């Protein structure tokens, strides 16, 4: 009897084990991860929503666990605890996440758990929404409190007589704190069962880009910069991370893009979106406030982004932003974009886009000195910091860069540089020694080394 039971158990085990491996390998079959290249990790994900999520979680399990620590420390410092954000993920956001993305998020959880990472669905949803939960949602909960939304990013999109070949060129550098920014180093190449093939930069564990740079196979090229000092949030809306991902995956035109972003707009992570359609040569700026939404478009011109509000009514009703203070980072960088666009009209291409993102000209002081006022942002070198977002010498600024022109986008490729585009490295230990006020970041703050521009190509 005993022997029989042991045999049954053994046979059961033998029968079950290969089946498990088969189902794992079937889910992972079309996915792969390349060796790190210039600070980036390229992953290819393909299949149903659940499989894409599983592949993502499985291939990037360690990076997701590491990123969760950084996101958690970043958004809980001087704010709410992680349990608060997990609770909001479950009760406020999840009811508005559509089935396709629920399946993908659940797939990520299954993938990381298969690799032994002990995070659950609410950790992953909170991570996906970290840019809208803090401070948009926390400000909504603590009504009347306007915590800083931060100065995230410098970007432009240009076309027509501004570019060398007359077709769109798009460029973006991501500004964030260096704890999270040093981990924003994934190139996601995703072939979903539904919608378009797309390639974007992103963070481990996030189903959207987060800093929102990407291209898709229908010719749509996307980026954004955040609207500084914005307030407003609608808990009954669709999370921004869902709309941003959906727009990347499903847009075939600028109209599609604007429609998807506006549909269920919750005001979270309010951005000025810069979009190009390489098929038509048209570019657009979608300034997506909660009360005020504007779409400007042209086939001959440029739109620059550096976190300034554009529409005076939006600036007045939905931000605490001082449009007249030219020493402010957003305004100073806006002035610099206008200078660079005028000086280089007719010449703008990928190489110039790369150069602009490394620019250290301070338009306020009229001299070259890297700081929070320069397109290549270095808050860590500024005695002013970037108030109210960052204190003097705050560990934040530009963390990574991407540029594409229409010809590259046609080939499903773009060029990217991890770290500051200027080549200046950020060294965590040295900075913490010189500025012990940031000791709370110790153990999570990493070096942010600068790497050469590298071209990434989606799978054919
Ligand atoms: Zn720089």
Question: Gist?
Answer:
This protein has 460 residues and is of the alpha+beta class.
Give a description of the structure:
The structure is a single chain. This protein is α+β, with helices and mostly antiparallel strands. The chain is built from 15 helices and 17 strands. The longest helix has 27 residues, at 2-28. The relative contact order is 0.13. The model is unreliable at 1-19 (pLDDT under 50). Bound molecules: zinc ion (ZN). Zinc ion is lined by residues 358, 360, 370, 376, 378, 420, 422, 424.
Helix content bin: 25-40%
Secondary-structure content class: alpha+beta
The main β sheet shows up as: 9 strands, mixed
- Spatial sequence of strands, sheet with the most strands: 1-2-5-6-7-8-9-10-11
* Number of separate strands: 17
Termini gap: 58 Å
Helical stretch count?
A: 15
Q: Rounded to an integer, what's the Rg over CA atoms?
A: 22 Å
- What's the shape? globular
Low-confidence stretches: 1-19
Mean pLDDT: 95
Ligand catalogue: zinc ion
Percent of residues in beta strands? 15-25%
Fill in the keyword field for this structure:
binds zinc ion, 460 residues, alpha+beta, single chain, 15 helices
Produce the secondary structure layout.
Blueprint: H1 2-28, E1 32-33, E2 41-47, H2 49-59, H3 61-76, H4 82-93, H5 99-114, H6 121-128, H7 130-141, E3 154-159, E4 169-177, H8 178-181, E5 186-192, E6 198-202, E7 214-216, E8 220-226, H9 240-250, H10 254-262, E9 271-277, E10 282-288, E11 293-298, E12 301-305, H11 312-318, H12 329-343, H13 350-356, E13 361-362, E14 367-368, E15 396-405, H14 406-410, E16 413-418, H15 428-434, E17 454-457
Parallel strand pairs: 2-5
Antiparallel strand pairs: 1-2, 3-4, 3-12, 4-15, 5-6, 6-7, 7-8, 8-9, 9-10, 10-11, 13-14, 15-16, 16-17
Helix pairs in contact: 2-5, 4-6, 9-10
């Amino acid at each position: 009897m005993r022997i029989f039971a042991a045999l049954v158990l053994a046979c059961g085990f033998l029968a079950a084990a290969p089946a498990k491996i088969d189902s794992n390998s079937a889910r992972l079959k079309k996915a792969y991860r390349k060796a790190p290249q210039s600070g980036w990790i390229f992953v290819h994900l393909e299949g149903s929503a659940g499989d894409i999520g599983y592949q993502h979680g499985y291939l990037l399990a360690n990076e997701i666990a590491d990123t969760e620590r950084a996101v958690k420390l970043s958004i809980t410092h001087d704010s709410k605890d992680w349990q608060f954000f997990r609770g909001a993920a479950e009760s406020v956001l999840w009811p508005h996440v559509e089935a396709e993305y629920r399946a993908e998020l659940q797939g990520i959880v299954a993938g990381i758990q298969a690799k032994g990472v002990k995070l659950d669905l609410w950790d992953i949803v909170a991570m996906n929404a970290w840019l809208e939960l803090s401070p948009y949602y926390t400000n909504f909960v603590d009504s009347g409190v306007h915590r800083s939304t931060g100065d995230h990013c410098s970007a432009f999109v240009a076309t027509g007589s501004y570019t060398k070949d007359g077709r769109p060129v798009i460029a973006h550098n991501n500004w964030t704190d260096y704890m999270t920014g040093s981990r924003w180093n994934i190139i996601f190449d995703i072939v979903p069962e539904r919608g378009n093939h797309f390639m974007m930069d992103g963070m481990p564990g996030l189903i959207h880009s987060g800093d929102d740079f990407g291209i898709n196979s229908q010719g749509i090229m996307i980026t954004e910069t955040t609207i500084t000092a914005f307030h407003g949030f609608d808990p009954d809306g669709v999370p921004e991370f869902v709309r941003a991902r959906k727009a990347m995956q499903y847009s075939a035109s600028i109209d599609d893009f604007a429609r998807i972003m506006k549909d269920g707009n919750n005001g979270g992570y309010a951005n000025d979106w810069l979009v190009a359609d390489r098929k038509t040569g048209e570019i657009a700026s979608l300034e997506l406030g909660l009360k005020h939404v504007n779409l400007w478009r042209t086939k001959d011109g440029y739109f620059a982004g550096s976190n300034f509000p554009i529409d005076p009514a939006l600036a007045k009703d939905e931000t605490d932003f001082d449009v007249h203070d030219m020493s402010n980072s957003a305004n100073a960088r806006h002035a610099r974009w206008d200078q660079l666009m005028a000086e280089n009209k007719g010449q703008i291409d990928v190489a110039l886009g790369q150069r602009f993102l490394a620019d250290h000209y301070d338009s306020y002081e009229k001299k070259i000195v890297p700081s929070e006022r320069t397109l290549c942002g270095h808050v860590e070198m500024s005695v002013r910091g970037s108030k109210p977002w960052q204190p003097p010498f705050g560990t934040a600024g530009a963390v990574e860069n991407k540029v594409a022109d229409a010809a590259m986008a046609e080939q499903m490729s773009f060029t990217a540089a991890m770290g500051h585009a200027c080549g200046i490295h950020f060294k965590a230990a040295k900075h913490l020694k010189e500025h012990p006020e940031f000791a709370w970041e110790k153990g999570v703050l990493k070096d942010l080394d600068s790497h050469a521009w590298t071209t990434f190509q989606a799978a054919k």
